[in-house]
Design goal:
With about 350 residues, the chain is α+β, with helices and mostly antiparallel strands. The protein has 2 domains: about 120 residues, NADH Oxidase (3-Layer(aba) Sandwich); about 170 residues, NADH Oxidase (3-Layer(aba) Sandwich). A 4-stranded antiparallel β-sheet has the order 1-2-4-3. Strands 5-8-10-9 form a 4-stranded antiparallel β-sheet, with helices on both faces. Strands 6-7 form a two-stranded parallel ribbon. Helix 2 crosses helix 3, helix 2 crosses helix 8 and helix 5 packs antiparallel against helix 7. The radius of gyration is 19 Å and the shape is globular. The two termini are about 30 Å apart. About 50% of the residues are buried. The protein binds flavin mononucleotide (FMN). Flavin mononucleotide binds next to helix 2.
């Protein structure tokens, strides 16, 4: 895959990245180098920062496994968002491989007897990174979820076209909603989804498990500082009656609302959509654009059907808004040692 984008230089910001190019274990075994690349995979976004992945490095290949112990069994019973998250980690791995001079190959769901083995990733040939590859690589340490209100500055049609092409190239489709009517229709679904979720205490309990106070030493979950001040707190989640209209307002006031859809709704499609999402987010980060998600309309079947109608069909996989932020905050990550099985 040539990773092709039209992107400008990123603005670096403080973040969880713990390694630099000079740490690359040149001259050591390929397996060792593959283990090093995982430092970039673990910086991928994941639902509620669950980081629901495990890796093993065997015979010059990385196996990427779903870590079901981190699956949201109520909100994400079929593991769709878990698989999207692992797809994002896979894309980061591919970008890191390009940066360090490797062509790679991906074998999705290679073992029908083991559906938790989501992909095998292999380095195949030496390859010189292109400028676009390097831009994506730099963006790995810049990208963040940003849940605050965005500036009104519109997202240029050129950037939107790049997003759409990236989605298409990965076998997904991106609907970009920028008119007030379009955004309002999605905002209504987001609001309804949050209200419906509020009627199920088990959803709030599951989400609460992954919310962290700012002083929590665990390297996963979402710290209070990464939330809007009006949003979820580590101890108490904002009541849905408060959250719903606020999220609605955020959606309506965002420059663009994006809905990523696929033609089928199965683990392979989720893995591809996760890669497309990560690719779009890195392109966006290079442009100073940040993203924030609201998946409630995808998590409730009736709302998902309505959303599909709004965006012209397909299976909506993720809903996010993008814009220029006024505030940035990062989330922690577990180290490669924490997620490596050998
Ligand atoms: C599949 C998926 C679903 C997500 N859903 C939500 C969501 O509904 N609400 C939200 O605020 N963030 C959502 N996120 C963002 C994660 O919470 C975020 O990626 C994680 O906390 C790590 O933080 P970072 O993106 O700043 O690195 C989602 C991310 C992924 C990959």
């Amino acid at each position: 895959m040539p990773i092709s984008t039209e992107i400008s230089a990123p603005t670096p910001s403080a973040g969880p990245r713990a390694v630099s190019d000079s740490d690359f274990p040149l001259g050591t075994s390929l397996d060792n180098q593959l283990r090093f690349l995982l430092n970039y995979a673990v910086l991928a976004p994941s639902v509620l920062n669950t980081q629901p992945w495990r890796f093993s490095v065997v015979d010059h290949k990385v196996n990427i496994y779903a870590d079901r112990s981190r699956q949201l069994m109520v909100v994400d019973a079929d593991g769709r968002e878990l698989t999207l998250s692992c797809g994002a980690a896979l894309f980061h791995l591919r970008v890191a491989a390009y940066h360090f001079g490797f062509e790679s190959a991906v074998y999705p769901l290679p073992d029908p007897a083991n559906p938790d083995l989501l992909a095998t990733f292999a380095l195949i040939n030496p390859r010189r990174a292109t400028d676009d590859d390097e831009s994506l690589f730099r963006a790995i340490s810049v990208r963040r979820t940003n849940r605050r209100a965005f500036a009104e500055t519109p997202v240029s049609p050129d950037v939107i076209r790049v997003f759409e092409r990236v989605a298409r190239d990965s076998g997904s489709r991106l609907a970009v909603l920028t008119t007030a009517e379009e955004k309002e229709s999605v905002a209504t679904l987001v609001e309804e989804g949050i209200r419906l979720g509020g009627e199920h205490p088990e959803i709030a309990a599951e989400i609460r498990e992954w919310l962290r106070s700012n002083s929590d030493p665990r390297r996963d979950g979402v710290p209070d500082r990464a939330q809007g001040s009006w949003d979820r707190r580590s101890d108490v989640r904002s009541p849905s009656a408060v959250l719903a209209p606020r999220k609605r307002e955020l959606v309506e006031n965002s420059p663009a609302v994006l809905v990523l859809t696929t033609d089928t709704d199965d683990p392979k499609a989720w893995l591809d959509a996760g890669q497309a999402l990560a690719h779009i987010l890195l392109v966006a980060a290079n442009r100073g654009l940040y993203a924030s998600y609201m998946n409630q309309p995808v998590e409730v079947e009736r709302l998902r059907l309505e959303l599909a109608r709004i965006v012209g069909g397909g299976f909506p996989q993720i809903v996010f808004r993008v814009g220029y932020p006024s505030y940035r905050e990062g989330t922690p990550r577990r180290s490669v040692q924490d997620v490596l099985d050998d």
